[in-house]
Specification:
single chain; 271 residues; two-stranded antiparallel ribbon; globular; disordered N terminus
Length: 271
């Protein structure tokens, strides 16, 4: 897992993300760095200050939310995270084994459907600003334009013309997300949690929603299970932060069941 130093994310100060070529393979992917303008303080350090104690110059409302969250880290919460990690590992391992025939078939069709690799790999920001490589089945044509810095996080929607024929099918049924079970097994993700954001989108996250980075990112969460994909990116970010405040095994299990129901109804509730 990469430990990324992301400098000041303030859009008002003109922070700009400069990413090296992450699509090319190297002997050691973890040696690649994310660089921003060095004149700004590191975003990740700022993030962790918010999560640990809140900043002195933040408004009282943000400080209150953070203080309440920190105070709730009792033995009960520690046990919850321990049980959740065991559940995630067992669930993801069993799911990969049981669905391995499906994964092999999908891999073959993705390769035959259009030119390009089977998997889409992208650097995402997760727990406390740690970066990791997320994996999906490729659903778009090569050289498709991606997120442009400055937009609202979780607001990017790709046009149908960028999606392959088979890609649209597996997106509707969320089959393209199944390779992320590997990320869950590695401990980089959870089954339920805030969606992991691309680097550029993380830098645009409002400070009042930094709480979303206090939990491992997940395959599904509050907004995916309960709301259509037409809600704003800002509301999605807020719901991610709300999940961190409310998280429990009971909530996690209910969101998993709601997500399965949503998929069976073939609704496009996801990014």
């Amino acid at each position: 897992m990469l430990r990324v130093d992301i400098y000041n994310m303030s859009r008002h100060n003109g922070a700009k993300v400069i990413i090296h070529d992450f699509n090319t393979k190297s002997k050691n992917d973890d040696s690649q760095l994310i660089e921003l303008r060095p004149e700004y303080s590191t975003w990740q350090k700022q993030l962790n200050l918010y999560l640990d104690q809140g900043l002195a110059n933040t408004d009282l409302k943000i400080q209150h939310h953070l203080s309440v969250f920190i105070a709730q880290h009792t033995d009960k919460k520690v046990m919850y995270h321990f049980c959740k990690r065991i559940f995630d590992f067992l669930f993801a391992t069993c799911a990969l084994i049981l669905m391995s025939p499906l994964l092999l078939i999908v891999s073959l069709v993705v390769k035959l459907d259009s030119n390009g690799p089977i998997f889409f790999k992208q650097l995402r920001i997760g727990y406390r600003g740690n970066a990791f490589w997320i994996f999906k089945f490729r659903t778009m044509y090569m050289d498709t334009p991606t997120f442009s810095p400055g937009k609202t996080p979780l607001s990017t929607v790709m046009a149908p013309i960028h999606t392959t024929r088979f890609g649209q099918v597996i997106r509707n049924w969320k089959i393209d997300e199944l390779p992320q079970l590997y990320n869950v097994i590695k401990g980089e993700m959870s089954i339920v949690g805030p969606r992991p954001l691309p680097v550029e989108e993380s830098a645009c996250t409002p400070a009042k929603h930094y709480l979303r980075f206090a939990s491992r990112p997940g395959l599904t969460g509050l907004w995916q299970a309960n709301h259509p994909n037409t809600i704003s990116g800002e509301l999605k970010i807020k719901l991610d932060a709300d999940y961190v405040r409310l998280q429990s095994m009971k909530l996690d299990l209910s969101l998993i069941l709601k997500t399965l129901s949503t998929i069976l109804k073939n609704r496009k509730h996801y990014k």
